[in-house]
Amino acid sequence: MFENKNSRTELNQLGEFGLIQYIKDNVTLSQPGSLTGIGDDAAVIDNGPGRTVITTDMLLEGVHFDLSYCPLKHLGYKSVVVNVSDLCAMNATPRQIVIGLGLSNRFSLDAIEEFYAGVMLACERYGVDLVGGDTTSSKSGMVISITAIGSAPQEELIYRNGAMENDLICVTGDLGAAYMGLQLLNREKQIYLENPQAQPDLQGYDYILERQLKPEARLDIIRRFKTWYIQPTSMIDISDGLASEILHICKASNKGCQIYEEKLPIDHLTRELGMELGIDATVAALNGGEDYELLFTLPISEYEKIKDRAEISIVGHITDVNAGYQFVDRQNGVHPLTAQGWDAFLSK
Ligand code: ADP
Ligand code: MG
């Protein structure tokens, strides 16, 4: 719809309404519950019977993302994924999102197109509809605020407070790679700042970089819970590292836990890069964050149903609250698990 693609179209040329029109023209609604999308004063939704689940996340330039190495398309994708991940953590099906954007005139239409291309890709991937938003100018960098709406039958919702003593503690996928990817990008940025002629050395680390720049929400896993006939007793998504998240579950459930270092799922590339960067892979898994995997608890009677699933690792079990929060290292040393970091006692 916009001609002369070769010349830069400024946002102030296009105006807020032009931008909204552009977004509207590029959105198709796929959820039957999205009755009215972009274009009126508010969206109208009927997601049918069951509970409505809502979550919101705000991303600030300079705090949550750095545009010098985060491509806008990836940023758009990731902004949607972090919200979808929160809905998955409730065992809810993601349905709609609305996006609030703060933009400066530094951005051209091309840049916003890139951002929305990432947003649309994630919407398609997870089957959610973009049904509205708000657009304002910002004087302090880019601001992204996304609200996601999901739904679930009441009895399928999974909260943080349902863990029971002796439950298995399970993790999907692998941990620590996203944090390691961020450290790699930071290192290359520093090298570039000191010598702009230097070429970034990111060879061989595609997987790690993808974990940082293009994370996925585990909608695939919560769908499989149904076919595996399992219903976790508690669940949370891992956005701040395993240690912090299991403490959330334990505190909400009034239970303790025991986590084993040797059971942590860590990709070999994460370990290799960790050695190169001087970062302990265990520390990255426990305290790194941004993995967007799921952490959940299951009654031990369900062990047979998950023991051979490649995408699930059993990393420990739930204990009585009086047993505390324990981390057992490879030498069978027992340490208190804290949200601040396990590396606090690594030097001992
Ligand atoms: P109002 O002034 O009534 O708040 P707006 O002009 O902000 O209306 O929005 C008009 C329509 O465009 C609404 O449906 C709104 O949800 C949608 N919209 C505005 N900004 C965005 C955006 N950045 N992304 C998606 N939809 C948007
Ligand atoms: Mg508005």
What does this structure look like?
By secondary structure, the protein is an alpha+beta fold. It has 2 domains: 11-155, 60s Ribosomal Protein L30, Chain: A; 160-336, Phosphoribosyl-aminoimidazole Synthetase, Chain A, domain 2, CATH 3.90.650. Helices cover 34% and strands 23% of the residues. The protein contains 10 helices and 13 strands. It has helices spanning 11-25, 72-89, 109-126, 177-194, 206-213, 219-228, 242-253, 268-277, 281-287, 303-306; strands spanning 34-36, 44-45, 51-60, 93-103, 129-137, 143-152, 168-172, 234-238, 256-260, 293-298, 312-319, 325-328, 334-336. It has a 7-stranded mixed β-sheet with strand order 8-10-7-11-9-12-13, sandwiched between helices. The chain has a 4-stranded mixed β-sheet with strand order 3-6-4-5, covered by helices on one side. Strands 1-2 form a two-stranded antiparallel ribbon. Strand 1 and strand 2 form a beta hairpin. Helix 4 crosses helix 5. It is globular, with a radius of gyration of 22 Å. 41% of the residues are buried. The model is unreliable at 342-348 (pLDDT under 50). Bound molecules: adenosine-5'-diphosphate (ADP) and magnesium ion. Adenosine-5'-diphosphate binds next to helix 1, strand 4 and strand 5.
> Can you count the beta strands?
13
Q: Count of helical segments?
A: 10
What small-molecule ligands were found? adenosine-5'-diphosphate, magnesium ion
Mean pLDDT: 92
Portion in helices: 25-40%
